[in-house]
Design goal:
heterodimer; A: about 575 residues; mainly alpha; Cytochrome Bc1 Complex, Chain C; 3 domains; two-stranded antiparallel sheet; about 0% strand; B: about 180 residues; alpha+beta; Rieske Iron-sulfur Protein; 2 domains; about 15% helix
Chain lengths: ~575, ~180
C-alpha cells in the first residue's frame, strides 16, 4: 500500500526542501502575513462566485448586482464578505506594515520585501477602486466620477488618463468592461505575482528574531497561531457582514440624480484633506499620497544601520506614527463633519428610500432591458401617473393651488362620489371651480330623494362597467333618468345634448374620449369647458394609459395610491 | 525545544487542520450555495398562455411547412424584464381541409437540440448538426435522432391559430416535457 502523502512528496520533489523553521520561535507577531493571504483567498473565492452572476454592461450591471443581493441564495452574504473583506485586507495590511516597521524588519537585507509590500498595498487600494464602479449604483458611479476627475487633473496626461479609464468620452459599457477586466483579471494576477514575490523573499530571509529563543518548525507551531488568527479575523468579518446586512447597494446610477458621493473609508483622509485645502485641492490630492508613499518607500534608506531597538529609531518610527496619526485624525474629522450635518442626513435618508424602492421594483418586476435607470418605469401605471402629474395634476389634484377642475382622487366616480355630485354638482370638489359653475348652463342639484336617488346613482355607476351592479336598482334608475335627466343627458352612444352624454361614463374608453376633446358635443360642449383638448398633445397610447389609471382610481383608496410609491 | 514532544506536535497539527478546515468550510459553503442557486430556479420565465399565430386560414393544404417565430410579449431573464423576445420557432403545416387540421412541430431537433430546417428540394426536414431527417409529417426518417419532430399543442379559437410553446428533453426516444 502506497502512502499517498509519500507518493505526492516523491513526485513533487517537495521532500528535498527542508521544513521551514522560525528563528527566535513562533510568535503572534508573525500571523498577519498569513491572515492577509487567507483574506486574499476569500476575495478570490467570493469574487469568482459573484462573477458568475455579474454582467458588466451599463444596462445590466446594477440589475445583476441587485439580483445577487436580493434574490440569489446567500448572495448578500457572499457579496458582503467580498466588500467588507476588502476593508479587512486594508486593516490587516496596516497592522502588518506597522508591526514590520516596529520590528525594523525593513532593514538590510530585507528592503525588497518591504518595498514589495508597499507596492502590494498600493495595488490593493487601486483594486478596491476598480471594484466600486462595477455595481453601477449611485454610490459607485459618483465616487468613481470623483476619482477619475482627480486623475484627470494630472498635468499634461490627465485628459488621456480619463479617456483611457472611461474607455472613451463618457461613462458607458466600455467603462464597465475595462474596469471589470482590471478588477477580475489584471489586478488579481498582479497581486498574486507580487504576493508570491513578497512571500518567497520573506521566507528566504526568514523572520527578524525579536527574542533570543530556540528556532522552531513553522509547521505546526506557527501554523496553529496563524490559523487561530485567521479564525478570529474571519469571525469578526462575518459578524460585521451579518450585522450590516452585507454591502450597500444604492439606486441605479443616474447622471441626472445628485448623490453625496463619499470614497471608501480608507480614502476618507484624502477626501477631508481636499475639503480643507480649498482651491489647492488638486495639488493636495496629488501630493499627499506621494508624501506618504515616499516616506514609506524611503524608510529603509533613511533608517540605516543594524540597530533594531525601538528607542534608537524613535525619529523614524515617530515619523510613521505621526503620518498614521494625521491620517486617522483626518478620517475622524471627515466622519464627524458628515455626522454633524442634518441636511446630509436628510439627503442620505432620501437616497436610501430611493435605493429601497428601486430594489423592491427590481425584485418584484425585473429590470427593464433598457437598464437600471429605467427601473422606475416598472412601477404599476408609472407612465400614466407621470403623465398625469405633468399634464393633469395642476388642474385636477386636490393639493394643487391652481386647481380649476373637479378633483380626480381615489374613489372618483364610485357610488358615494356620484351621489355627492348629483346633490351638489357645483360643489367645490366637483364643478365648483370651473367657469361652468358660475353660468346659467350649470347643472342644478338633482332633487330626487333616497331611495330614488340611489337608483339613478346605480344607473350611472353601471355605465362605468362595474361588476357589482344591482340590476333591479339600475332598472328603476332607467325610468327615473327618463323623467329627471334626459332633457339634458343621454345614455345612447354618440347623442349630443345640452349636457354631457353619459353613455359609458367612467370607462376607459370614455375617459380617453373625454380628454381627447372635452369640448365635443357628446361631452361638455364647445362653451362649457375650459379644459384643453389633448388629442394632439398626447398620443392615443398615452391617453389610454391615463384613462386606465383613472379607472383604477375609481376603486382605489388613498392607501392604494400611496402604496404605488412616489414617481 | 517544543518540537521534541511528538504528542504535542501531533495535537498542534490536528488543531491547526481542524480550525483551518472549519474556516474553509465557512468560506466554501456559502460560495457554492450561491453558485448553485440558479440550478434550482426557473430563471427564465415566459407566458404560459398560448401564443396567437394569426388567422388559421393563411395555412393552406399542400403548402410546405412554414416557419413561425414564437415571440413572447414579455419574459423575465434572471434580472431583466424584456419585451418581444423570440423564444424559438415552430414549423406549421395544414394537413387537411378541416378547420382544426393544422400540424405544428417544434423546430428544435429531438436529438441534441439544434434548429431543424426545411429542405425544399427533398421535401423533408433536415437537422444540419448530425443529418437527422424527418418527413413532412414530422416522422423520423434517417439519422441519429431517436424520435420524430415534437408536435406542439395547437388549437383554433375563432379562426385564429393558438400555439402552446413547450420544450422537450432531447436525446431520448420518448417525448418528455421540460
Amino acid at each position: 500500500m502506497v502512502n499517498p502523502v509519500t507518493w505526492l512528496r516523491e513526485r513533487t520533489a517537495l521532500t528535498a526542501t527542508a521544513p521551514g523553521t522560525i528563528e527566535g520561535g513562533a510568535s503572534v507577531a508573525y500571523v498577519f502575513g498569513t491572515v492577509l493571504v487567507f483574506l486574499l483567498l476569500v476575495q478570490g473565492i467570493t469574487g469568482a462566485a459573484l462573477a458568475a452572476f455579474y454582467s458588466p454592461s451599463s444596462t445590466d450591471a446594477w440589475a445583476s448586482v441587485a439580483y445577487v443581493q436580493d434574490q440569489a441564495a446567500l448572495g448578500w452574504f457572499v457579496r458582503g464578505l467580498h466588500h467588507h473583506g476588502g476593508s479587512a485586507i486594508v486593516v490587516i495590511a496596516g497592522i502588518h506594515l506597522v508591526q514590520t516597521a516596529i520590528a525594523g524588519a525593513y532593514k538590510k537585507p530585507r528592503e525588497l520585501v518591504w518595498w514589495l509590500g508597499i507596492l502590494l498595498l498600493v495595488v490593493v487600494l487601486a483594486w478596491a477602486v476598480t471594484g466600486m464602479i462595477l455595481r453601477w449604483d449611485q454610490e459607485g458611479y459618483w465616487s468613481n466620477r470623483v476619482e477619475v476627475g482627480i486623475a484627470a487633473g494630472t498635468p499634461i496626461i490627465g485628459d488621456q488618463i480619463q479617456k483611457l479609464a472611461l474607455g472613451g468620452n463618457d461613462y458607458g459599457n466600455l467603462t464597465l468592461t475595462r474596469f471589470y477586466a482590471l478588477h477580475v483579471i489584471v489586478l488579481p494576477v498582479i497581486v498574486t505575482l507580487l504576493t508570491i514575490g513578497h512571500i518567497v523573499l520573506a521566507r528566504r530571509h526568514g523572520t527578524t528574531p525579536m527574542r533570543k529563543r530556540a528556532a522552531v518548525r513553522r509547521w505546526p507551531h506557527q501554523s496553529l497561531r496563524d490559523v487561530i488568527a485567521i479564525a478570529i479575523v474571519f469571525a469578526i468579518l462575518i459578524a460585521f457582514v451579518v450585522s450590516s446586512g452585507g454591502a450597500s447597494l444604492a439606486a441605479p446610477a443616474d447622471s441626472t440624480q445628485p448623490y453625496d458621493a463619499r470614497p471608501l473609508w480608507y480614502f476618507r483622509w484624502l477626501f477631508e484633506l481636499r475639503e480643507l485645502a480649498g482651491s489647492a485641492e488638486q495639488l493636495v490630492a496629488m501630493l499627499a499620497p506621494a508624501v506618504v508613499g515616499g516616506f514609506l518607500v524611503a524608510l529603509p534608506l533613511l533608517d540605516r544601520g543594524s540597530d533594531r531597538a525601538v528607542r534608537s529609531r524613535a525619529l523614524w518610527l515617530g515619523g510613521l506614527v505621526g503620518i498614521l496619526g494625521v491620517i486617522a485624525g483626518l478620517t475622524l474629522m471627515s466622519f464627524v463633519r458628515d455626522g454633524n450635518s442634518p441636511e446630509l442626513a436628510e439627503r442620505i435618508a432620501k437616497a436610501e428610500t430611493r435605493a429601497h424602492r428601486a430594489r423592491t421594483l427590481a425584485k418584484t418586476y425585473g429590470v427593464p432591458a433598457t437598464g437600471g435607470a429605467d427601473i422606475w418605469s416598472m412601477a404599476p401605471m408609472w407612465r400614466a401617473r407621470t403623465l398625469y402629474a405633468q399634464r393633469c395634476a395642476s388642474c385636477h389634484d386636490e393639493a394643487s393651488k391652481d386647481r380649476k377642475g373637479p378633483i380626480l382622487a381615489p374613489g372618483h366616480k364610485n357610488r358615494a362620489w356620484i351621489t355627492a355630485f348629483l346633490q351638489e354638482p357645483s360643489g367645490d370638489r366637483f364643478w365648483g371651480r370651473t367657469k361652468l359653475a358660475k353660468t346659467e348652463a350649470a347643472m342644478k342639484p338633482v332633487e330626487l330623494k333616497r331611495p330614488e336617488l340611489d337608483d339613478v346613482v346605480e344607473l350611472i355607476y353601471a355605465e362605468g362597467g362595474a361588476a357589482d351592479v344591482d340590476p333591479a336598482k339600475r332598472a328603476r334608475g332607467v325610468t327615473l333618468f327618463e323623467s329627471a335627466c334626459s332633457d339634458c343627458h343621454s345614455l345612447a352612444e354618440g347623442v349630443s345634448g345640452s349636457g354631457p352624454n353619459l353613455a359609458g361614463t367612467g370607462t376607459r374608453a370614455h375617459y380617453t374620449s373625454f380628454m381627447s376633446n372635452p369640448k365635443s358635443g357628446v361631452h361638455m360642449g364647445a362653451d362649457n369647458s375650459e379644459m384643453p383638448r389633448f388629442d394632439e398633445e398626447l398620443t392615443v397610447v398615452e391617453r389610454d394609459a391615463i384613462a386606465e389609471y383613472l379607472v383604477w382610481l375609481r376603486t382605489a383608496t388613498k392607501a392604494d395610491l400611496d402604496a404605488l410609491g412616489p414617481l | 525545544m517544543a518540537d521534541s514532544d511528538p504528542d504535542r506536535r501531533k495535537f498542534l497539527q490536528i488543531a491547526t487542520c481542524a480550525i483551518g478546515g472549519g474556516v474553509g468550510l465557512v468560506v466554501a459553503v456559502p460560495a457554492l450555495q450561491l453558485i448553485s442557486d440558479p440550478a434550482g430556479k426557473q430563471t427564465i420565465t415566459s407566458p404560459s398562455a398560448p401564443f396567437d399565430l394569426g388567422p388559421a386560414e393563411r395555412f393552406r393544404v399542400g403548402e410546405p411547412p412554414r416557419k413561425i417565430e414564437i415571440v413572447a410579449p414579455v419574459i423575465q431573464d434572471a434580472w431583466t424584464a424584456a419585451r418581444d423576445v423570440v423564444l424559438g420557432a415552430a414549423w406549421i403545416r395544414r394537413v387537411g381541409p378541416g378547420a382544426n387540421e393544422i400540424d405544428a412541430r417544434s423546430a428544435t431537433c429531438p436529438h441534441l437540440g439544434c434548429a431543424v430546417g426545411w429542405d425544399a428540394a427533398r421535401g423533408n426536414y433536415l437537422c444540419p448538426c448530425h443529418d437527422s431527417r424527418f418527413a413532412a409529417s414530422g416522422d423520423k426518417l434517417t439519422g441519429p435522432s431517436e424520435r420524430g419532430l415534437d408536435a406542439l399543442p395547437v388549437q383554433i379559437v375563432e379562426g385564429r391559430l393558438k400555439l402552446t410553446w413547450e420544450r422537450y428533453r432531447t436525446g431520448q426516444s420518448t417525448k418528455e416535457r421540460l
